[in-house]
Design a protein that fits this description.
The chain has 79 residues and is mostly helical. The protein has one domain. Helices cover 73% and strands 0% of the residues. It contains four helices and no strands. The longest helix has 27 residues. The protein is elongated, with a radius of gyration of 20 Å. The two termini are 29 Å apart.
Length: 79
């Protein structure tokens, strides 16, 4: 276990039991979600990636996207 993870667990252990369970539920849900995404990425073939890239290029060319700098301006604090 890493030092950072041990530090987080130490802090979680200080919480009331119900809050510990809440944190544990969120962590387990995040890990399960990561496994689902990893499986989806692993199952995606090159033809599918090419199709996705083509779709994205078309959306950009047709002005159907918003630049990231408009969504996350430089120098603005993020939540």
């Amino acid at each position: 276990m890493t030092h950072l993870l041990q530090q987080a667990i130490t802090e979680i252990e200080k919480l009331p039991v119900s809050e510990q369970d809440s944190v544990a539920t969120r962590i387990l849900a995040e890990l399960a979600d990561d496994q689902v995404w990893a499986a989806k990425f692993a199952a995606t073939n090159q033809q599918q990636w090419d199709h996705l890239a083509q779709s994205v290029r078309r959306e950009i060319a047709e002005g159907e996207t918003i630049p990231l700098d408009d969504v996350f301006p430089h120098g603005q604090p993020q939540p």
